[in-house]
Specification:
The complex is a heterodimer of chains A (43) and B (518). By secondary structure, chain A is mainly α. Helices cover 60% and strands 0% of the residues of chain A. The model of chain A has no long low-confidence stretch (mean pLDDT 84). With 518 residues, chain B is mostly helical. Chain B has 19 helices and no strands. The chains are: A mainly alpha (43), B mainly alpha (518).
């Protein structure tokens, strides 16, 4: 496996894992404190 | 008394259910085939570009449209489409594909899923361990399917028994509803599936280079086959089309399933973060797990030359012939074989219960039939219509159903869906709807992507496939003469189902209109 291959693989694995961890941590633990307008749409 | 609408129990539950729908047999069988077919390093860059420009936007579109339609008590595509385009009374008919497509896929998918359960059983009981050659595995598979008769099985009885067990499990889960059946199963099956996948991936990667005669046939070089980017392949239109197609199939978008699942959300429930969570779970299973199991394993045991040939021999060959052959060469191979096939079974069942839901939801919402009764009606119809794929497998019926269900209908469905939401309903309103109750601010660039890039990509994909692949299938080019009556018969049955659905939609809205009048 080339150095470029390693970098590419680790970059994409890292990106996917980061998104998975971010999403599930917000779904499971995240309190919703985002500012919204009267209709509940994110400001 | 007014019926109480079904709802998901938890936010995690709905995300796992949608992810369960997306993570299916295609993740572990179709992805490695596509990734290997075009040679070393050709696939991943187009695949990841398509994920960002087509897959994730379509995921958000379906979640948004489904929750919007759910607000009008509609859980299937005809009702959702009519809610999005209220001025046009024909909009509901555009959504028929959202029931027809999943039902059609159900007609053969449950049967394939039952093969996984059967092979998990044959692995753990050691029956696969006795087979030593590639030819032996092919003979075992074709005997099981009833395509050959080498005397391994008593006709098609074992395969039919496993089908009955699988079908019964599917219908039972659907019977217990959104929260009591689907959500409960996915809460257990999805973590289990990911755990099995992780165990298999670690096992394959830690094999390193087991053959001293071929020290370069290692698991790390197997990963390199996928990840050593070949920039010259970016010039090939075929790779781009294949990568976009794979993204499309893997995320279960366009078939109406996510529309139905997200229709059970409340107006204030998030869809942007949940959609991204479901898509990323699917990518974890596909890129991280399937990419680390199948391709490195095949590379270690067959080398860089044969891996393309294996991929070209198809997904079933890879899953049911090559993989067990590899597991047989490992210590405690029977256990790893079991984990592989049971993981496929879990991936299959979490998808098949989702493709049953649009039909059941249509009967429940548009005809006010109680869920249990709706599931019974669906169960009888599905059981009868599953039979051609089982008994006429050798006549090419399953392949034809797969073409219409998993290719034609869902691509058309997704194209219609995104045009309806982004152009007819309006991208401005759709953008607000996506962010209603949202826990994530989607980057503004996706407003442009959803309106222009994704629909254009889908139209190009439709045109390309129509010109290069579909026309030959539609005109039955290359179908042996003795199979033509069976293929024609299948298509007539499909046409009849389509017609019946159109009549049912007409009846449902007529009933609704009469109720509103009086």
């Amino acid at each position: 496996m080339t150095l470029g291959g390693w970098i590419f693989m680790l970059l994409i694995w890292g990106a996917i894992l980061s998104v998975v961890i971010y999403c599930y941590s917000r779904i499971i633990f995240g309190a919703d404190e985002t500012p919204r307008d009267d209709e509940g749409i994110l400001k | 008394m007014e019926k109480v609408r079904q709802r998901w129990g938890t936010k995690l539950g709905v995300v796992l259910a949608v992810a369960g729908s997306a993570v299916g047999l295609g993740n572990f069988l179709r992805f490695p085939v596509q990734a290997a077919k075009y040679g070393e390093g050709a696939f991943m860059i187009p695949y990841l570009v398509a994920l960002v420009l087509v897959g994730i936007p379509l995921m958000w579109v379906e979640w948004t449209a489904g929750r919007f339609g759910g607000g009008f008590e509609h859980s299937s595509a005809p009702g959702v489409f009519q809610s999005l385009w209220r001025k046009n009374r024909f909009a509901k008919y555009l959504g028929i594909g959202g029931i027809f497509g999943p039902f059609l896929i159900y007609m053969y998918y449950v049967y394939i899923e039952s093969w996984c359960l059967a092979f998990a059983y044959y692995s753990i009981t050691g029956q696969l361990s006795n087979i030593t050659s590639s030819h032996g595995f092919i003979s075992f598979l074709t005997d099981y399917q009833g395509l050959s008769d080498a005397g391994t099985f008593a006709g098609t009885i074992p395969s039919f028994v496993f089908f009955l067990i699988t079908f019964f499990l599917n219908i039972s889960v659907t019977y217990f509803g959104i929260r009591g059946g689907i959500e409960k199963l996915c809460n257990i099956a999805m973590p289990l599936l990911l755990f099995f996948g992780l165990v298999l991936a670690v096992r394959v990667i830690t094999l390193f280079a087991p053959d001293p005669l071929h020290p370069d046939w290692s698991s790390i070089n197997g990963l390199g086959f996928l990840w050593n980017a070949d920039f010259s392949a970016l010039k090939s239109a075929k790779v781009w089309v294949a990568a976009t197609g794979q993204i499309f199939f893997t995320l279960s978008v366009g078939m109406g399933v996510i529309l139905t699942y997200s229709s059970y959300l409340r107006k204030s429930d998030d869809v942007a973060l949940s959609g991204l969570a479901a898509a990323s779970t699917n990518e974890f299973a596909e890129v991280f797990l399937a990419g680390s199991i199948v391709i490195p394993a095949a590379f270690i045991f067959f080398g860089p030359q044969d891996i393309v040939g294996i991929a070209e021999s198809g997904a079933f060959n890879l899953g049911f012939v090559t993989m067990p052959q590899i597991f047989n060469q490992l210590p405690v191979g029977a256990l790893f074989g079991f984990l592989w096939f049971f993981m496929l079974f879990l991936a299959g069942i979490t998808s098949s219960i989702s493709i049953a839901q649009p039909s059941v939801a249509f009967l429940e919402d548009e005809f006010k039939i109680k869920r249990q009764k709706a599931v019974k009606i669906f169960g009888v119809a599905a059981f009868l219509l599953c039979q051609p794929a089982i008994w006429f497998l050798h006549k090419g019926v399953l392949d034809d159903l797969d073409f219409w269900g998993a290719n034609f209908v869902i691509v058309l469905g997704a194209t219609l869906e995104i045009i309806l939401l982004a152009w007819v309903f309006g991208i401005g309103k759709a953008w607000d709807e996506l962010h209603l109750g949202s826990k994530l601010r989607v980057p503004r660039i996706f407003k442009f992507v959803i309106k222009y890039i994704t629909p254009t990509s889908l139209i190009v994909l439709l045109g390309w496939w129509f010109a290069t692949e579909w026309w030959d299938v539609i005109t039955m080019k290359g179908v042996p003469d003795e199979n033509i009556p069976y293929i024609l018969g299948t298509r007539l049955v499909l046409l009849a189902i389509l017609l019946l659905l159109a009549i049912l939609v007409w009846l449902a809205w007529r009933k609704r209109k009469m109720k509103e009048t009086y």
